[in-house]
Amino acid sequence: MGKRILALLVAVLSGLAATDARAEWFADLYAGAAYTVRSDVTLIVRPPGLDFDHTFQDVKWDPSPVFGARLGYWFDALPWYGVGFDVFRFNADIPMQTVDSTIVGIGPTPATLQKIDVAATAVGFDVVRLRYRGERWEPYATAGPALFRVRARNVDNGELTTDPATDHAWGYKLGAGLEWKIARDVAVFGEYRFTHVAAEPTLQGTITGTSVPARFDLDTHHVVAGVSLRF
After folding, report:
1. Domain 2-230, what fold?
2. How far is CA 183 from its chain centroid?
3. Rg of the chain over CA atoms, in angstroms?
4. Exposed / middle / buried, residue 170 (Cβ in 10 Å: 0-12, 13-18, 19+)
5. Cut 0.70: pTM above it
6. pLDDT tens profile 128-147
7. What is the helix (H) or strand (E) element at residue 14, kind and residue range?
8. What does DSSP say about strands 64-74 and 106-113: parallel, antiparallel, or unpaired?
9. Which distant-in-sequence residues (6+ apart) come within 8 Å of 26 by Cβ?
10. What does DSSP assign to residue 94?
11. Where are the domains of the chain?
12. d(Cα 14, Cα 83) in Å, to the nearest integer?
């Protein structure tokens, strides 16, 4: 499904570019830091006929580097409006911690959640991209859906295997930045963005061998800087 959506977007971009040969294309490379805010993590434990869902509340996620690349263009007829797509990656690992937890809604009681590594790769579709064209400085804002690939791997929780699990889910990306032109076709920029995705990678239980989906939200603040080329 994700490949079909990406192919469709590329086709739309190509068609739009064909109708406006003077459109201004741009390509960005960037890196920075990502910080995922606390959220609940639910292990869905449901052997046949039973329900032992275990929710760890207000779980802390480790910050991580983020890096990516973006491609798009600004319309010549509407120079303040553009579109594009953005590929980026960051981690949101769960460190060992003791938090309140509930089992089948009973609790909360303190429980220790051991380390789980989580990595997210996303393709963001900037269906709205706005800018104010200054002589040297150019503020801009972006918004659109994003397709996430979320990979989780248990490290130290004894009731789960260490086999990795992957989920694909739709979320969204919002951003705002400031670009500074250092040459006619080269600029540097700084940007803040916020991303959201609700993921559910399916881990495996060591005792029962049953599937144990891990349900959580990744609400992540990103601060990045990079270089932009115009062509």
Report:
1. Porin (2.40.160)
2. 31
3. 21
4. middle
5. yes
6. 999 999 889 999 999 999 99
7. helix 2-19
8. unpaired
9. 70, 71, 72, 73, 74, 82, 84, 228, 229, 230, 231
10. B
11. 2-230
12. 12
